[in-house]
Amino acid sequence: MITTSIRRALLKVGAVTAIGALALTGCTATPGEGAAEAGPMLTIPREDMGTFSQNFNPFSPNAAPMTTQSVYESLLIYNPAGGDTVPWLAESWETSDDGLSQTFHLREGVKWSDGADFVAADIVTTFELQRELLGGFDYLDSVKAVDEKTVKFTFNRKFSPALFEVGQQVIVPDHIWSEFEDPSNEENPTPVGTGPYTEVSNFQAQSFDLLPNPNYWQPEKQKIPGIRMLAFAGNDGANLAAVNGDVDWAPQYMPDIQTTFVDKDPENRAFWFPPTGAEINWQLNTTLDMFSDPEVRKALSMAIDREQIVKVGMSGYTIPADCTGLSGNYDEWRDADVVADCDWTGYDAEAAAEMLDEAGFTAGADGQRTTPDGKPFAFDISVGSTSSDWLSVANIIAQNLQDIGVQATVDSPDWAAVVAGYETGEFESGIVWSANAPTPYQYYRNIMSTESVKPVGEQTFDNYHRFGNERADELLADFAATTDAAEQAEIMSELQGIYAELAPVVPLFPGPEWGAFTTDNFVGWPTEENPYATLATRAPTTVLVLTSLEPAE
């Protein structure tokens, strides 16, 4: 689910100047019911969407920002920053003794923004639509309303990750969505949700507002007048807006953020980049002969200098990856023995060259390498043109590879074109995010499961590199079938060992959860000292921030 949401975030990229997007930032809003008083809108840039369309369909890849963070809500919220689970639309839940069902007890007093009651039928309709329109949940046999405030999920097999996958699915109203003739193409321009800010206002190509839900179930937590989203076609424009004080919340990469942003007003500005985001990988298309050998993938991994990548490309905001491929979100699962026994994520250009020689990728008199069939060992690294940080990473990789005679060219069209190539498998290599869920199950499934492998030309939203391992399949099934913590840890250690042995992808670094803010207008932000959420604006925890902020005095 996390991968799909990131994909949604990247699919719409256009071109617009920062000046046009900022034209409305000085406006204030009249509060809705529950908002304390009129004042500045909570202003947030979206750095990878040059224009917005008024589409609030949570099942659509083109949904407007905040659709699944402010308009629609889920049964529960997992917070990776604190490692805790927050009951939300569900007050409580339990799993049956045989592990084949979960029952959720819905919160009393929740209403949709149009005043209708939130009931179990809403969950039933949501999952019918989710499975019909986007697939997934193959372990789910049925979803049934026990009564208006109780819903039961029955599984066709034991599946321990189900709690968070089911629990974090955003819910839509049955009385609205059951009436749509074509839900997949419904733009839903005036959405009805349970979230804190649902009322669409001032919608324009480069900005729009979300005002308070007049029937929110936590009116005491609607302390801000509303949300204003601004569109930018890249980091540079969004960063300029942050530096100039035109936005309150800056959830994007900013180079040298201490100097360029914080030091301009250290009393009111801060940032927090916990390494709990998705692992960022360099994915090599394993359907290509030149990347089919794990020893070649390991050699290319050893040829790149992650210390330089982290220091220069990522401004020192994260740390180099190890051979487990796990981000900081999974530190408690990491097997120290696997990390200690593996060397292919360390920088050693000489050893990399020797490994390529042994694999038949030899260098000629000019120092340039050829594949075993005599073709130049050359390929593209695909990355979206608006991501200045990842472009820098890709360029460092290309420079490192040149040192051992490998020709890598950075290919940087817009993100829509890049993602399209990933999804159909018609790419050579690329900088790619990964699944990020409460356990590493989904990460390894998307990286190594044969079930997630699609033929080139067939669209997939996971496993772009198209690698599968049958032993990994067995282990993933075993992990899903047990809730015993010790058994799960043992299984996960073996999965890490397979990953270290076969190098299905080349892990680069844990993705920081970008987040900077100013307290000029609002206070109550999450911090390292108070990690009640991350500062991401595209995560399940975003709603925790929206319901915690309050106007500055």
Kindly describe this structure.
- This protein has 553 residues and is an alpha+beta fold.
- The chain has 18 helices and 22 strands.
- It has a four-stranded mixed beta sheet with strand order 3-12-11-10, with helices on one face. The chain has a four-stranded antiparallel beta sheet with strand order 6-7-9-8, covered by helices on one side.
- It is globular, with a radius of gyration of 24 Å.
- The model is unreliable at 1-36 (pLDDT under 50).
List keywords for this structure.
553 residues; 4-stranded antiparallel sheet
Topology:
Blueprint: H1 2-11, H2 18-21, E1 28-29, E2 39-40, E3 42-46, H3 67-71, E4 76-79, E5 84-87, E6 90-95, E7 101-106, H4 120-133, E8 140-147, E9 150-155, H5 162-167, H6 174-177, E10 197-201, E11 207-212, E12 227-231, H7 235-243, E13 249-250, H8 257-260, E14 269-271, E15 279-284, H9 294-302, H10 306-313, H11 336-341, H12 349-358, E16 378-382, H13 388-402, E17 407-411, H14 415-424, E18 429-432, H15 441-448, H16 470-480, H17 485-502, E19 506-510, E20 516-518, E21 522-523, H18 542-546, E22 550-551
Parallel strand pairs: 3-12, 16-17
Antiparallel strand pairs: 1-2, 4-5, 6-7, 7-9, 8-9, 10-11, 11-12, 13-20, 14-20, 15-18, 15-19, 21-22
Low-confidence runs of at least 5 consecutive residues: 1-36
Cα(first) to Cα(last) distance is: 39 Å
Q: How would you name the oligomeric state of the polypeptide chains in this document?
A: single chain
Morphology: globular
**Pairing-aware structural class of the strands and helices?**
alpha+beta
Would you tell me the overall average pLDDT?
91
Radius of gyration: 24 Å
Main-sheet strand order equals 3-12-11-10
Our count of helices gives: 18
Helix content: 25-40%
What is the number of E strands? 22
Largest sheet: 4 strands, mixed
Strand content: 15-25%
